[in-house]
Design a protein that fits this description.
2 domains, five-stranded mixed beta sheet, seven-stranded mixed beta sheet, single chain, alpha+beta, Aminopeptidase, 10 helices
């Protein structure tokens, strides 16, 4: 595409005729190195848009897609991931990215999406500023969540975890003792009021969901991570959790995240789970809202890759709250605390 003196990109929801242009845009910027390889496949994009798993917003000039912002999810009642935010270099610096993000938020409201989750990279401040301008607020820090090679990095990158709740209401949760201050501050940063969880009611609603689920990779592709979701706690769940952590080591996962349900577990159960996870080198990551089944979760993380392959020192943090989150997250792990 070429810029014109008076050309103004049209920002709108993607049409079926845009999907090839979205793939061309991703290729023009990243070659074949983009972490979400499905965005090189126009047919996949069209399928995801059609079934509601992808809310795609584009900037178009003379029929050519010059910018894109995506919201992705494959589960009901959960937050949609903000990602695949790309603008052709010719059209950067004139507010296209902000316009895309703003319209994406409006469309998410209209679609009844409960929340947006974003993971800003920390190699520059621009994505953090765009997210903050859109109302997205920080709830955690994901150490090593970005694979080596993304954006040319020679180490696994660290990202912020941030959310924008779109359906404001009181969240009923239990809070583990060790992380009470941090989780309360995260809820406050989101502007979300909390109340005590009615665990028996939630367990009845929880129904057939398994107490423990495991998923390799994330919404943006397989990337050396193992993701555990824990919603129940008894002897069987404890044994399965320990087995899963050992399996992650055998599978040579670099990072393991464990999301612990704050709605279906009591504070004593959460305290026991936190203590167990910490014996396996897990440490605090942050607050997940509208996770599995629409529940809020404590996210803990374990770094299995060599520490010197993880970038945690050369981070660009654009707010005092982000710096406070980094300070606590790294202080919660013996091998990272000396870097503060």
């Amino acid at each position: 595409p070429t810029s014109g003196e008076h050309a103004i990109p049209e920002v709108r929801g993607a049409l079926p005729s845009d999907v090839e242009g979205i793939s061309r845009l991703v290729f023009s910027i990243y070659g074949l190195s983009y972490v979400h390889e499905n965005f090189y496949r126009p047919a996949w994009i069209a399928e995801q848009i059609a079934d509601g798993s992808l809310l795609s917003t584009v900037a178009v000039v003379d029929g050519e897609v010059v910018g894109h912002h995506g919201l992705l999810s494959d589960q009901p009642r959960v937050a949609f991931e903000s990602g695949v935010g790309v603008v052709h270099p010719i059209w950067q610096g004139i507010g296209v990215a902000s316009s895309l993000a703003g319209l994406a938020v409006e469309r998410a409201y209209q679609a009844g999406i409960p929340a947006i989750v974003a993971r800003a990279v920390l190699i520059h401040p621009y994505s953090q500023r765009a997210e903050h301008a859109a109302g997205i607020r920080i709830t955690g820090l994901l150490v090593g969540g970005v694979p080596i090679g993304v954006y040319g990095a020679t180490k696994r990158g660290t990202t912020l975890l941030s959310y924008l709740p779109l359906t404001p209401h009181e969240h009923a949760v239990s809070i583990p003792s060790r992380y009470r201050a941090q989780l309360t501050a995260a809820f406050q940063n989101l502007g979300v009021e909390i109340a005590a969880a009615d665990v028996n009611f939630v367990r009845a609603e929880f129904g057939a969901l398994p107490a423990l689920e495991v998923h390799l990779g994330d919404d943006l592709g397989s990337n050396g991570t193992c993701n555990i979701t824990l919603g129940g706690w008894d002897d069987d769940a404890r044994a399965k959790l320990i087995d899963t952590m050992r399996d992650a080591v055998r599978a040579k996962s670099d990072i393991v995240y464990c999301d612990v349900d704050l709605s279906s577990l009591t504070t004593p159960q959460l305290d026991e789970i936190v203590d167990l996870l910490r014996t396996y080198d897990f440490f605090y990551a942050g607050l997940v809202v509208y996770g599995r089944a629409g529940h809020d979760h404590l996210r803990m993380q374990a770094v299995l890759a060599p520490i010197d392959t993880i970038e945690v020192t050369d981070l660009v943090l654009d707010s005092d709250f982000a710096r406070e989150v980094r300070q606590f997250v790294l202080s919660d792990h013996d091998q990272f605390s000396h870097l503060l």
